[in-house]
Amino acid sequence: MSDHPLESWRWLFIILGLPTVLWGVLLFLILPDTPSKAWFLSREERLFAQQRHQSVQRSWKTNEWKISQFCEAIKDLKTWFFFVIITTGSLTNGVISNFSALIIQSLGFDTFTTLLLNLPIATFQFIVVIVSSLAAQRFRKSRLILVIIGNIVALVGTLLIRQQDTNNKGGRFAGVMLLLASSNIFPLMLSLISSNVGGITKKATVNAIFFLGYCAGNIAGPQMFISKEAPTHQTAFTGLLSLFCLVTAFLALFRLYLDLENKRRDKEQGKHIDAEQKDGCPVSEPNNEGPNLHDETDFENSDYRYCL
Q1: What pLDDT score does 281 carry?
Q2: Which of the chain's termini has less CB crowding within 10 Å, N or C?
Q3: What burial class does residue 94 get, using C-beta atoms within 10 Å of its C-beta: 0-12 exposed, 13-18 middle, 19+ buried?
Q4: pLDDT for 240-295, tens place per residue?
Q5: ω into residue 231 within 30 of 0, thus cis?
Q6: What's the whole-model pTM score?
Q7: Distance, CA of 167 to CA of 237 (rounded, Å)
Q8: Rounded distance, CA 87 to CA 217, Å?
Q9: First and final CA of the chain: distance in angstroms?
């Protein structure tokens, strides 16, 4: 494509971007936004799905913007745990995603070999996300633990790159691959927002703050890479080391906070409610009247318990 008026990097955006846009249009047309509009379910199944959601969170989809829920989201400590964790995690992601090829090349590989070596790294990242998602579904109260494990593995990878001799290509490349173990933070934290925030307006607010942190971290992270420090990039890897330690500490504190909050609610109500019981959340039988149209936050719903 050297003789083509479009540079090769532009073709990369076209080839990868066009299917993404088309897929987005397709999902917009066929993907229902609520269980009540799920065209692939029967009427009874749609009612059952609606009632199941109501029995868990009492957050019925509504287009009404509630200022009280917005204010509650701002005052909720969970919101800022989500923000700090994803911002810190995205600082590391900003380095890894933008400079993984440069890191590999700095190990002494040529451009073509660097491109080839990105394939097993991408495969490992895909496996990490899939396995983490399946494990979170299989094992109770494991989501934050899985993110912590991913960050610890990435921390080990950072040490392998930073501390080993630059001639040890194999060991340092293994470290680069282990960095991607932290990739499970984004999907699992999103799932925790879905599970642990009640109220449509409140959930939308928390999601917005979460994505602000995600974007800010990814923008700021690459600034740790200083070209004149190649091939060791000490500033970047020292920064990664510190950030992985910080995000692991924040995750542990967040899990402790949620666990203590669940125990406090159990004590106040004099009953134990398990948000992640193995046989699923209690579901009311469908009826002809349909579910009650609640839109309660997790603060307003005294039976709400947080997933870990």
Answers
A1: 43
A2: N
A3: buried
A4: 999 999 999 999 999 999 999 999 999 999 988 888 876 444 433 444 444 445 78
A5: yes
A6: 0.84
A7: 17
A8: 5
A9: 50
CATH of the domain at 89: 1.20.1250.20
State the amino acid at position 74 in one-letter form: I
Q: Is residue 122 part of a domain?
A: yes
Calculate the alpha carbon distances from 179 to 132, 250, 282, 296 in Å. Answer: 15, 19, 39, 39
Does the pLDDT value for residue 52 go beyond 90?
A: no
Question: 133 to each of 46, 136, 166, 299, how far by Cα in Å?
Answer: 25, 5, 35, 27
**Core vs surface per residue 232-249: b (16+ CB within 10 A) or e:** ebeebbebbbebbebbbe
Residue 277 domain-assigned? Answer: no
Q: What is the number of structural domains in the chain?
A: 1
Mean pLDDT of 7-11: 79
CB distance 114 to 213 below 8 Å: no
Tokens of 129: 């996300």
Q: Is residue 231 part of a domain?
A: yes
CA dist 201 and 295 (Å) reads 9
* Contact residues for 295 (Cβ-Cβ < 8 A; gap 6+): 58, 59, 60, 62, 64, 66, 199, 200
Number of Cβ within 10 Å of residue 173's Cβ equals: 20
Residue 75: what pLDDT?
Answer: 97
Which residue range is the domain that position 150 belongs to?
Answer: 65-268
High-pLDDT (> 70) share of the chain, %: 89
Rounded Cα distance between 290 and 34, Å, is 14
- Mean pLDDT across the chain: 85
DSSP annotation of 300: T
